[in-house]
Amino acid sequence: MSLLSDTEIADGLPAKWTRDDDEIVREYTFDSYLDGVEFAGDIGEVAEEEFHHPEIIIGYKSVEVRLTSHEAGGITKDDLRLAALFDDEY
């Protein structure tokens, strides 16, 4: 698995996702805490199926998701693909 260039990351980053050094990040907002918890469970299942696991931080009415490919040391196509799959769940 190879790291993406800065241009490849910028061009492939899904809407509402941002780059934070060697991670891509998005905060999803919800009407209630339990809606966010349910979403975190849903994307957790997707991540498990894809065997690519994000950092998921559950807040009061938000869920922050951070993706990076630890074994590669940064952002790869797997991160961009998983971000798009998470957006499909939202």
UniProtKB/TrEMBL annotation:
Tree of life domain: Archaea
Catalytic activity: (4aS,6R)-4a-hydroxy-L-erythro-5,6,7,8-tetrahydrobiopterin = (6R)-L-erythro-6,7-dihydrobiopterin + H2O
A Pfam short name: Pterin_4a
InterPro entries: PCD_sf, Pterin_deHydtase
GO biological process: tetrahydrobiopterin biosynthetic process
Keywords: Lyase
GO molecular function, one term: 4-alpha-hydroxytetrahydrobiopterin dehydratase activity
EC number(s) on file: 4.2.1.96
Family: Belongs to the pterin-4-alpha-carbinolamine dehydratase family.
Protein name according to UniProt: 4a-hydroxytetrahydrobiopterin dehydratase
Species per Swiss-Prot/TrEMBL record: Natronocalculus amylovorans
